Amino acid sequence: MANPLIAVCQMTSTNDKEKNLQTVCELAKKAKSRSACIAFFPEACDYLADNKKDIVAMAQPLNGSTVASYKEIAKNNNIWLSLGGLHEALPDNEQHISNTHIIINSDGEIVGTYRKAHLFDMDNKNTGVRLMESDYVLPGNEIVPPVSTPVGKLGLSICYDMRFPELSLALRNMGAEILTYPSAFTYQTGAAHWEIILRARAIETQCYVIAAAQSGTHNKKRVSWGHAVIIDPWGTIVAQCSDKTDIAIAEIDLGLIQQIRDNMPCENHRRTDLYPKIGSLKGSF
């Protein structure tokens, strides 16, 4: 049997939720037309506002109309969707939201939910750059076990999480075959670190890495790097978008994962007598 195909998606979200939803719909249809069984969408695929007030006010719970629309897209196209991180409204909290990655199966059901653990906070007095995700987002406190899908076991993360190899190694030890990093990476850091970090996560875990991406100018304050990418467990880039709204397609070869792990059995060589086994305690941090 042929290996299953996946699609990594790239888009430029704005504060226009309807337009963003239409883009998700079109890219999902395109992915299905190219025989992908799952499409991966970037962080903030629901919207990207330019101020804290709107970011919080526009958020919806996971039983809201936006996620309901995503479920219909998945069901109507008979395709799985990775959507993250969505702006999830929280009950009894009008000041904060969660940055949440969900997996929807082809029947339109949510089968995985992860809330971003590492929040991107920068308050640099020297450069005047202040980006404080914790001003309006509550961090997640759980490593979610990998989700079984038609392409393999998905380990869920979001954007800034990629800078912390402990999380990726924990997911690997919990059985992940594919690591996902839906992102809205800033242009400057993306140009310097995007590819290097993602390839490192693939090499050290011997997993596929799939990083959907925001790209281009969202508003006067925000520009994203783009370059949505699929990387194999040897660290080779096998598919990548450029700087436009589009998809890239690649196959997932679970046999290749096993071959690489057999030929380079790093897990057999870890000195857990010197340091703890990351992920040996599943669940909460």
List keywords for this structure.
single chain, 285 residues, alpha/beta, Nitrilase/N-carbamoyl-D-aminoacid amidohydrolase, eight-stranded mixed sheet, six-stranded mixed sheet, 16 strands
How would you explain this protein's 3D organization?
This protein is an alpha/beta fold. It is 26% helix and 31% strand. Strands 1, 2, 3, 4, 5, 12, 13 and 16 form an eight-stranded mixed beta sheet that branches. A six-stranded mixed beta sheet has the order 8-9-10-11-14-15, covered by helices on one side. A two-stranded antiparallel ribbon has the order 6-7. Helix 1 packs parallel to helix 3.
Kindly summarize this structure in a few lines.
This protein is an alpha/beta fold and 285 residues long. The chain is built from six helices and 16 strands. The N and C termini lie far apart (40 Å).
CATH superfamily: Carbon-nitrogen hydrolase
- CATH fold-level assignment: Nitrilase/N-carbamoyl-D-aminoacid amidohydrolase
Strand content: 25-35%
Which secondary-structure class do the elements indicate? alpha/beta
The first-level CATH class is given as Alpha Beta
* SSE string, helices as H and strands as E: EHEHHEEEEEEEHEHEEEEEEH
| Number of helical segments with 4 or more residues | 6
> How does the overall form come out from the CA principal axes?
globular
Average pLDDT confidence is 95
Q: Radius of gyration from the CA trace? A: 18 Å
Oligomer: single chain
InterPro entries: C-N_Hydrolase, C-N_Hydrolase_sf, Nit1/2_C-N_Hydrolase, UPF0012_CS
Domain CN hydrolase: 4-254
Keywords: Hydrolase
Protein name: Nitrilase like protein 1
